[in-house]
Write a structure and sequence with these properties.
It is a single chain. The chain is mostly helical and about 210 residues long. It has 8 helices and no strands. Helix content is about 85%, strand content about 0%. The two termini are about 35 Å apart.
Amino acid sequence: MEKIKFGIFDVFVYITPGLFALLCIYLCYADLGNGCYQFSIKFIALVDKVSLNLALVIIIIAYILGFSIHQFGYNYFYLAGKLLFKKNFLGYERGLSTEERKFILVRHFSKENFTYVELWNSFRGMSFNLSLVFLMIAIIIVVRLVANSSFGFDWGVVVAFFLLLSLITLRRAVTFHIWSHRTLKETVETLRLAQKAINVDGAEPK
């Protein structure tokens, strides 16, 4: 069961954003001057030619890229998240890493609630990593098309779409961050886990 959870975490937090990071790299070299429609046809044709072995290599590379950008995504989340959603962050400014004691208590005494904390944390990581790569995609498209003086309405719609996705996923990351904090706090307080820990320590033979 733990292996399954670990695999799902990898897909959410690393592989999915990593695949979009690969798209960023592809956009740096692809021909965008013929319009979004022609680019889409060529891209779909390229994907259709991918073999199973190559797909496995792509997944491995996506995992490495997703793992590599995770710290950048985390820093971006705190900078951009606090800037754009300051009111939502009030009371939850601290990182989850500062709640180590609560993590230990919930993991030891309430495994069911700890599963939810892990889930919210995974979704948070996936969301802020996706938000970062969506923003990167929009920037790369704009820079390349402006440099080639070929920016059209169709690409403008695509850029606006990815900027919107970046904003939405960043907002979701803030939501999952808050849910993680609340689940930890309410579980510890409602179940009186700190007192339980004291009772367990006191019951141990000296």
